[in-house]
Amino acid sequence: MIIYQSYRQDGSYLGGTPLEELAVNAAKTAAAEAGEPVDVVQVRIEDGRLRRVRYHPDGTAERLWEKEEKKQ
After folding, report:
1. How many Cβ atoms from other residues are within 10 Å of residue 39's Cβ?
2. CA-atom Rg of the chain in angstroms
3. Smallest Cα–Cα separation from 4: which of 61, 14, 19, 33?
């Protein structure tokens, strides 16, 4: 099972859903309205693996999990 959790840049929790499309659309809307990035974290329940994507107010997405993997 996978869940998607959304967070503001100050770390405050916006919400969660098992539906990726819903999480992404909500994050894009929240980022545009607030004028600051919103992160969506994909959590795989089976193994606890996390993948974080940052959605910017201009509609661009930054796959932070790819950058973190390259550092390792």
Report:
1. 19
2. 12
3. 19
Residues forming a β-bridge with 7: 13, 39
CA 57 to chain centre: 13
Q: Which helix (H) or strand (E) holds 5?
A: strand 2-8
Does 72 have pLDDT greater than 70?
no
Torsion region of 37: left, alpha or beta (phi above 0 gives left; psi -120 to 50 gives alpha): beta
Q: Which residues of 12-33 are buried (b: 16+ CB within 10 A; e: fewer)?
A: eebebeeeeeebbebbbebbee
pLDDT in tens, 13-34: 999 999 999 999 999 999 999 9
